[in-house]
Amino acid sequence: MALGLVLSGCGPEGYTPRASASAGSTITPSTPLPGDIKALTIKEENKSKQKKSDTKAEDVKTFDFQKIFAQANEYYNAAIKWKKLKCAPKTAFVCTKKECPKVQVKENSYIILDKKKDVVSLCRDGFCNNFPAKFEQTGVFVNVQIQDLVGMYIKILGDSRYKEISVIGLDSYITNGECTVM
After folding, report:
1. Rounded to whole angstroms, what are the CA distances from 36 to 15, 25, 80?
2. Rounded to an integer, what distance in angstroms lies between the CA atom of residue 157 and that of residue 69?
3. How far is residue 136's CA from residue 131's CA, in Å, rounded to a whole number?
4. Residue ranges of the domains in the chain?
5. In what order do the strands lie in the sheet with 26-27?
6. Digit-coded pLDDT (tens) for 88-120
7. Greatest Cα-to-Cα distance within the chain, rounded to the nearest angstrom
8. How much helix, strand and coil, in percent to the nearest 5, is found in the chain?
9. Which residues, including other chains, have CB under 8 Å from residue 129's CB and lie 6 or more apart?
10. Taking 90 as the threshold, does the pLDDT of residue 125 lie above it?
11. Which residues pair with 144 in a beta bridge?
């Protein structure tokens, strides 16, 4: 009579292997089968993972939503309030298909954003080119689209930080910096 292995029971303890005879009688093995060892190992790993996740749950910090909303409100009000900003670049990148290396920021370069006149002035070494622009506030951000320069976009957080993205062909020039109210 040939013996086969039958898995039964799929409770929290995992599968319970048992040997069975082909005639239908059940024989309980006295030594652990390879499946028993594997099931015990998996069970212990699951307990270990549960303990780790319980620890992580205890480490979760609460958010001070009052503080977050107050800061968002400050940015929102600052975005509404400013009429003219001077923004100076801190970092710049030139992104191509394969890479996005950091490039040297030119000294004496800045942008003047004038919401009142709907004008953006791109300045290098004291010489400025003025362009008509569309200013639109979206929440805490002011988005600026320069009308005569398709592919150039500026986004300002409140009245403090900005990002300028210029696309020429398929390459992107990205500048990050800080702004001050004029």
Report:
1. 8, 20, 68
2. 15
3. 16
4. 3-59, 83-181
5. 3-11, 14-21, 26-27
6. 999 999 999 999 999 988 888 999 999 999 999
7. 98
8. 25, 50, 30
9. 121, 122, 123
10. no
11. 135, 154
